[in-house]
Amino acid sequence: MIKEIIKDEFFLKQKSKECTKEDTYIAQELLETIQAYKDQCVGMAANMIGYQKTMMVVLDEDDYLILINPVILKTSNKIYIAEEGCLSLQGVRKTQRYESIKVSYLDINFKKKIKTFKGYTAQIIQHELDHFEGKII
């Protein structure tokens, strides 16, 4: 089901809660919604579609990747300034991002994965992690 994008800053500023196996249905809604906005969006946190849960979908090269309860384990020393937009907000804003991040997460089957992401994919993940913390860029 394609969900409406949440723009209410009060809702978006609230911290997300960890996902359980009962929350896996959110993944399909995230996938369908991001695909509906594919021309404007490369990542989406669950709170952007009304769920205060730590689940996201990101475009990783040419495929969508679901990350459940992701945690950054390690960051590169190299930081850069990025200009980012968001479907939930108007305009673009400057923010700092790490060039690469090592992330632990659960896949849709709740199997633990650890992967290092670099460049644009790393940037997208960091943006969505900010959503989990209620941080608005």
Automatic annotation (TrEMBL):
Enzyme class: hydrolase
Active site, UniProt feature: 128
Pfam families recorded: Pep_deformylase
GO biological process: translation
Cofactor binding mode and count: Binds 1 Fe(2+) ion.
InterPro entries on file: Peptide_deformylase, Peptide_deformylase_sf
Reaction it catalyzes: N-terminal N-formyl-L-methionyl-[peptide] + H2O = N-terminal L-methionyl-[peptide] + formate
E.C. number(s) listed in UniProt: 3.5.1.88
SUPFAM superfamilies in alphabetical order: Peptide deformylase (SSF56420)
Domain of life: Bacteria
Cofactor(s) this protein requires: Fe(2+)
The UniProt record lists the keyword Cell inner membrane: no
A GO term, aspect molecular function: metal ion binding
UniProt KW keywords: Hydrolase, Iron, Metal-binding, Protein biosynthesis
Sites where the protein binds Fe cation: 86, 127, 131
Membership in a protein family: Belongs to the polypeptide deformylase family.
PANTHER family: PEPTIDE DEFORMYLASE (PTHR10458:SF22)
Functional summary from the UniProt entry: Removes the formyl group from the N-terminal Met of newly synthesized proteins. Requires at least a dipeptide for an efficient rate of reaction. N-terminal L-methionine is a prerequisite for activity but the enzyme has broad specificity at other positions.
HAMAP family: Pep_deformylase
Name under which the protein is recorded: Peptide deformylase
Source organism: Faecalibacillus faecis
Lineage, top ranks: Bacteria, Bacillati, Bacillota, Erysipelotrichia, Erysipelotrichales
